[in-house]
Amino acid sequence: MTFICRFAPSPTGPLHIGGIRTALFNWLFAKKNNGKFYLRIEDTDKERSKEEFKEQIISSLAWLGIEHDGKEYIQSKNIKKHITIAEELLKKGFAYKCYCSEQEINEQKEKCKKQGIPYVYNRKWRDAKDLQVPKDIKPVIRFKSKISGNTIIKDLVQGDRNISNSTIEDFVILRKDNTPTYQLSATVDDHEMKITHVIRGDDHMINSFKQKQIYEAMGWSVPNFAHIPLIHSEQGKKLSKRDNASTLEDYIKIGVISDALRNYLLRLGWSYKDKEIFTKQESIDLFDLSGVGKSPSKLDMSRIYSINETYIKSIDEKDLFNFFKEYVSKYKQPIGQSKEKILLKSMSFLKNKTKTLEDIWNNAQYIINDKIEIGEDDKKLIDDLSKKVINDFISEYEKLPSLSREVLEPLIKSLIDKHKTNFKGVGQPIRIALVGSRFGPGLYDLILSLDKSEVVKRLKSI
Q1: CA dist 223 to 6, 52, 91, 145, 214, Å?
Q2: Cβ(24)–Cβ(265) under 8 Å?
Q3: Interval 324-378: pLDDT, tens
Q4: For the range 271-278, what are the long-range contacts, defined as Cβ-Cβ under 8 Å and sequence gap of 24 or more?
Q5: CB within 8 A of 339, min separation 6: which ones?
């Protein structure tokens, strides 16, 4: 049997971090088992669905390295099939027309609310022999859920889940305007796409029980279900789109690398022994649903920064520069080719003590900007002794026939001895003159990263 998985987002907003993890787990499960992974765009909510969000979903998954097989499956193109199945369920006696008005439904809900019990439709039109069909109300079509007995789902993450059928209401599958509901559309599409494994958040558990009944009514093979615990915020609450770190864009903007975020999401609710860092291929080879935990995962920004820092330090510097260049092109002003060459050469030290691409951007400002602005607090540190140190450095520096750390170290030491100071006493004023701050890259890296004429120009401007 070929394993077939899918990710089925609605294009009604930016891709949520929980959705991205669901997509990742589906993709990994399919790839691990030499199966197929499909992307289904559930765009039947015409008012809220937008093409820009569809494109954003596709590009977001691609950015993370999640590639889907074939073309995107667009749900709205299959509505006729959904309606046909609803009518078939009606003919087979597994569904019925319900003529309850909105007022009646609201009254039922209010009554349940007062009694402190969950609302369940009272099945008034389930057996409508003695009821007169109203002329002014268009009916909805409701699925005739089982009333007695229990339904079991053998969940691949949560284990056997057993509920009483009486708790599942006769849910609507076709609205008054003849449009299908989620329960019907998702079930029909999963069947049409031959989905073998439905892997999604555990907030869909009740949907799986409802959809299983549709499968059984139609005589279709029921897919395997796996429900992943949700992601909670750092405060322990369900993560919502209102949280600052809820969408993929939130992470890209602060300079998180795609490989690092994929690694973090993999470990968010899944584990393999005590291993923390996984290559893309290791993720595929080692992933298994048995490693998914049953409890909600808590988003941990400090852990994201830590993994990102690990990737920044360990990946090839050309690859890091390409990540940086992509980040800058999206969120910062363009950088000229001459600056790019310096930045590429300087990645080895610009990445020091950084957790994000944004940090590298901040460290590189002295390269990117031709004019250096010195802050008021740093200006106060340039006293008479500092100016003498700078002038003496310029005199000796201009005489140097070649530049290297080995050449610069004796020069700095001679200035320390001459002015009876320490490394800070020499290095600090030079750094302030070159980058505009007493904080920044190591002194030798800093001097060597700039052209000799640029170093002299900045030092003489003090």
Answers
A1: 12, 32, 24, 19, 12
A2: yes
A3: 999 999 999 888 888 999 999 999 999 999 999 999 999 999 999 988 889 889 8
A4: 276/307, 277/307, 277/310
A5: 367, 368
